[in-house]
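Objective 1b: paired records.
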Amino acid sequence: MHPSAVVVFNERTGEPEIDFDIPGSKLTDREKLVRRLAAYLKNGTLTLGGVKLSMKDADAIKELRGIINTANEQFNGWARGNVAIIDRLESRASDPDRLRFSQPEDESPLPIPGMNPELTLHGYQNAEVRKRSRDFSGINGFDVGLGKTFTALALVQYVQSIGVKKKTVFVVPNSVLSNWRKEAQRAYVSIDDCLFVGLREDDKGSTKVSSSNYDEDLNRVMENRHSKIYMTMEAFERIRLKDSSIADYEQFMRSADASFAESEDRKADERAKGKAKTILSILGEKAGAAPYLEDMGIDSLVIDEAHVFKNSASTVDFSGGKYLSLSPASKRGLDAQAKAWLIRGGSDRGDGVLLLTATPITNSPLEIYSMMSLAVGHGRVNDMFVGISGADGFMNAVCSIANEDDETMDGQVRAINVFQGLNNAEMLRGSLSQVATIKSAKDVGNQISVPDAPERATTINLPEATVRQLEEYKQAYRFAADAIAERGENRGDPEAFERVSERFGESLELIGHPFNLINKMTMLIADPDLDQRVSRFIIAEGQQDAAQKLVEAWNAKKFTEDRPRPGPNATEDEAVSRKALYDSDKELVGYLFKMPVKAWVAGATITIDSISADMQERFEEMAEKAGVALDVSVPPKLAALLENVQIEAATPRGVDENGDKIPYAKQIIFCDLLGMHNKIKRLLSKRAGIPASAIAIITGQRNNTPDEIMEVQNGFNAPGEANKYRLIIANEKA
């Protein structure tokens, strides 16, 4: 690497480190940079560390990067040519105790006692049941519509009928527990051995999940009268673990994940203990009267929509890079990992956990690691990657990180680590194929019939006024960003900044934030009314008087809403109240204004000073009672949406359970701008021939309870006259 390289021992920790012994007070720039290589080897970051050099920082970073790249190439060549290292890796990779061989898919019919004889599995479902019955672990990654639910029900029935498993828990989202009950009733001859935790049926046959029944039903599991237990994720999280099991799990994680391991390095040890403490507090501090998992006799676990647990691992020393998502581990994910470990530990074959998800692969390698370790265990994932130790080892094995110059949003050029892609892609691909069965409609061929789903991109021509306003926002942002960065030459437009600042009442820091610019541009392109922060309604000719009375009635009710700034259509003087906001250091960071939501008539339109969906609904309800017919404007993006909806409505392609075409199209519209949902609904009910009662809106605030979501789902899926909804408008979170 370098003739001055030496191994030294840290006086504080006693740990070995690489340093560069270059004595003298008149070192050259290159010698100083070589000494910075020691900091890179220790921390994984490329910095100058305040070293005084004769060259510019940018040139120094470039030269240091070259030194590091050369050192890495030399080390890689040495490692690949080291017979002892290569032999050790090959020996571990070919260890018979760690090898698993793929089985040919057998799609022939599989008789399963207790299954409804009128229902039959497709060939690919038979193959999946056979595969998982030999090793009840992994991920069922069938695409949407290929029958993950029915396959899981058949698999559990089969493994229990042959005595491989005896008591299985299905963990499902809260909103679909009753749907799993319906599927079980359809799949099995009898559901007498099924327990649905927290689910109750009323006199009318409707079902409802109540968390107050969770602990009672969880304790019923110990009666051993049920071999299939279905519960929500919330109920599963309530189940406790004994202190001895928690202690054993901590010791296991310390051996399976290097970030848990004890270290003489005090700093590293404190960080590792901090991670362990998080695990221990999550597992050991549970309220309620739920039973201990160890006493429930559970030997197998099926998790539906398992991507909910994708954040169940975290790194400690892996530094990451730009474009690489490293989300923190969630409490729910960590809880599930511990319980999955305990269930696998009770099996002679080390299996017992099956995940169901249509999205087993995400853009984050860490999430892939989380999913695989939850499905088959940390130890098996470590073996598949030839002896890594935990999340840090996995990320180092599969992530290609390079140090590059990058220009930030404030115009500064900095040396940062950048995620460039995947290393060891073949190893990752092979591991995924071992763990997950991923199939699409194309993969299963003619076994199922799926309607065509052509993708059609629509070009939107924006009005000149919108294009000019977009440029205004860009110029204002550039001026603010350059001012914050204290650039010598500001590339923005100061007049544009002043106009935007005055209009929205925003500070330099806020206008110069990239997300603020993105938000402004998104709303302007979607609908100029959103850009004005108003909801505008068109009134019919001859209804001006009624409209004026409606507005007066609205204003008399004195509706208010909280805002961080008064808004473009109001001033601070109009605020009903103002509340000061402070940070954790008790520093004033802003105000919260309680502003009146005004309405006014201008020509043939009524405008309300709000884009809140709740305020829109209230106004529309008052308008309906007052007999004022409301219409909406159609900006270019909504015009394109309307055209697409009309095309689909004119050519329905859906079929019912008998294979007959249904007379209308069913559509789902995703829109994250909640202030547009009511407008879209009104537009489609007036111009696309879809009754307003046949359009449902689902967001985090509307139709958001499990019962409401289930009602919409059932109403949308129901055939014939039982169908209630033809179109659903939802945001991404829904």
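Objective 1b, second protein:
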Amino acid sequence: DDFAAIDHGESYGNSIYKRYQGEVYAAVPSNGYYRMGGADPASFQTFDKGRFDSRQAARDASHVYCGNRVLPQMRADTTRYLGNSYFSDGALTYFCDSSSGLNRELGRLDEIWQNILYRAGRGDKPQTYLYPFLVLPASGQPYRPL
């Protein structure tokens, strides 16, 4: 995707997200923008609270996102920002890192092959960097901000 063009798209507050030509994109440092094909631009909203640790997460009518990736099984309608990069829907709580990191699950050969396919228009952009996330263990007491 054209970084310069997307960068001039409509910003969602101070978040990592942009709206460009009817699509939602997430900026992943060291990797550029990723089109979020499953995101609904009409219902898309960020958790941006003016803090650095809330700008990397968002939701739409169906999903909650950490960067450009869906947080599995999170309920979008009840998810809220707890603080310090933690997000909860009342049943599940995730830590969504505010800093991107190297995708250690993507092998070097896979990355090269995915880049070839991407540049040929036959595949998605490889996810070399990402915003790491981690689900917290279930608890009898709901997680809450301190």
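The chain has two helices and 14 strands. The CA atoms of residues 91 and 98 lie 22 Å apart.
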